[in-house]
Amino acid sequence: QMPGTARHDREMAIQAKKNLSKTTDPVERLRLQCLARGSAGIKGLGRVFRIMDDDNSRTLDFKEFVKGLNDYAMMIDKEEAQEIFRIFDKDGSGTIDFDEFLVTLRPPMSNARKEIIMQAFRKLDKTGDGVITIEDLRGVYNAKHHPKYQNGDWTEDQVFRAFLDNFDSPYDKDGKVTTEEFMNYYAGVSASIDTDVYFIIMMKNAWKL
User: Fold this and answer.
1) How far is it, in rounded angstroms, from Cα 109 to Cα 100?
2) CA angle, residues 107, 113, 119, in degrees to nearest 5
3) Which of 93, 156, 174, 197 could form a disulfide with 143 if both were Cys (CB 3.0 to 4.6 A apart)?
């Protein structure tokens, strides 16, 4: 498990469930339902939408949108879904761009937080191609301290793969982590941390920045 995330994940999920009972804003409700599943919750919904998007248009019509929400077991009634859809369908075309949807759904983050997340990403992305893979991790992340490596259960590559899977969603673990996925993951973590200062300290410690 990644340094400093498991505990935050739990705190965030608990916090999100608490806030759900208080908020009436439909977008916020959807966001909190995702966050109640942990840091990868929003990204998980994104994966479901990608699977829905048969023609690779990167857009969804209302029917696909509702089916995606249902497949992801979001508790949402049709009126609420319509309201959310309308908010995202800015030009009234009857479709929504789901990259835009996911960015809006992500908890807002200050520039200071985004910057430190990108610093961590760049440190991990040894090859500098904008994607973190097992190759990149070999140079940065020491697998030898991992308990499963020490007791012989896992090879180094399996440790790396498990590490990357933290940032990937349950449906489509491809062993590659993009900037967007990394940001989405940390937007989740960030939601459970009140101050920029504390978030930055956590990131610096976790990634030795």
Assistant:
1) 16
2) 125
3) 156
Distances (CA, A) of 208 to 119, 143, 200: 10, 16, 11
Contact 184, 46 (CB under 8 A): yes
The alpha carbons of the chain give a radius of gyration, in whole angstroms, of: 18
Kindly state which CATH superfamily the domain 3-105 is placed in: EF-hand (1.10.238.10)
Instruction: State pTM to two decimals.
Output: 0.68
Q: Which residues pair with 33 in a beta bridge?
A: none
Q: What is the mean pLDDT of each run of 10 residues along the chain (209 residues)?
A: 59 84 88 84 81 82 90 87 90 85 84 95 93 88 86 91 77 80 83 85 87
Fold of the domain spanning 111-207: Recoverin; domain 1 (1.10.238)
